TrEMBL record:
Domain of life of the native organism: Bacteria
The entry's keywords: FAD, Flavoprotein, Oxidoreductase
Protein name as catalogued: Rhodocoxin reductase
EC number of this enzyme: 1.18.1.-
FAD/NAD(P)-binding domain residues: 4-288
Group of enzyme by EC: oxidoreductase
SUPFAM superfamilies: FAD/NAD(P)-binding domain, FAD/NAD-linked reductases, dimerisation (C-terminal) domain
Cofactor: FAD
Organism: Corynebacterium comes
Key word rRNA-binding present: no
Amino acid sequence: MSAHVVIVGNGIAGLTAGDTLRRLGYEGTITVVGEEPHATYSRPALSKVALAPGDDLDVGTLPAATHGATELLGRTVTGLDPANRVATLDDGTELTYDGLVIATGSHARRFTDSPREYTIRSLDDAARLKASLVNRPTVTVIGGGPLGMEVASGAVGLGCDVTLIHPGTPMELHLGPLLGGILTRAALEQGLNIIDSMVSSVREEGEGMAVTLTDGTVLTSDLVVTAAGDLPNTAWLESSGLLVDGRLIADERCRVTDSIVAAGDVVLIDRGEGPRRTPIWTAAIEQAKVAAAALIRGDDADPLDFQSYFWTDQWGLNLKMSGPIPQGTDPVVVKGSLEERSAVLHWPESGTAAALNMRMPIPRLHTLARTEPATP
Ligand SMILES: Cc1cc2nc3c(=O)[nH]c(=O)nc-3n(C[C@H](O)[C@H](O)[C@H](O)COP(=O)(O)OP(=O)(O)OC[C@H]3O[C@@H](n4cnc5c(N)ncnc54)[C@H](O)[C@@H]3O)c2cc1C
């Protein structure tokens, strides 16, 4: 068993990997290196409660770490030598390891280096954005996925005039046409201005920002929030020999090599259907559990078996969804009513269940999603 495990990244994947090592009986040393100076926090809360009216930047509390690791926070790993099992930190410190967990997450895509183009990935990003939004600037949000819609919802709630740019119906790619349509209608009712387009460029103009759409239209606003996807944090691995076409790929036990595992937003997992990223909170947790077990047990560890789970809070609506994105077919309304935007829904064909503004324990939602269609 490894005597020194180094975990790179102090997000939910890094935290879960450390806690899981201990739960499985690992008694050796653990060192966690985290670029952010903060203890692990809830990243999903950054675009939800953290942007709610009020002075607090409330991101809730996570259960305290149980890994008893030496934590090097506010420090960055800048290079990795897998042959000699050495990770190098930003100050030149070298950490030798027997086992390594790569959990460095991802960073937001952006168009410019302008401080008036905001992204929201870290607690510090959220604090900076909220401090600006409370002055009620005009805001352009680029991207109508969960992040863009949650930020838009928060900004409208803080009294800002907000325009969101997205090709097609916001949220549809993530939730399918029915649920995407419900959230989009709620957004329009609450005053969001939606433009169906792509962005070709963003630049500073005067005291504000100018966003050029693909048809040449130029929109100006005080600030821009870009919520147009994220890119894995793999720059520190560039000379490690671990990347394949610039990507970090792990097997179904989250192993990159015998002594290196990876979990969370940074990695693509190959479960036999080609390498895929699953950049969501519960995937990071499940992958980290499997990764930690694989460091200890190798081939005897269970492979990843993950049922997709996603949630969002926006426009006064809470949505939880288990299973793949439902397409086309009408759901069975198990409880409540779609008109009232309060319902439990089931798509038996795709194995999906959703609770819209309804309290429902996640295990029950998973069970409903897996329930076979009723035979006529
Ligand atoms: C605003 C926001 C809202 C979200 N909402 C939802 C949601 O509602 N539902 C959902 O399922 N998912 C949501 N997600 C996605 C979810 O938060 C991520 O999938 C999850 O946090 C990934 O965890 P992680 O540990 O892999 O990466 P991260 O949480 O990104 O943690 C990685 C950590 O590693 C650090 N790091 C990076 N490079 C280095 C280095 N070289 N050395 C040391 N440390 C390093 C980073 O600073 C970071 O602290 C949201 C994400 C964001 C940004």
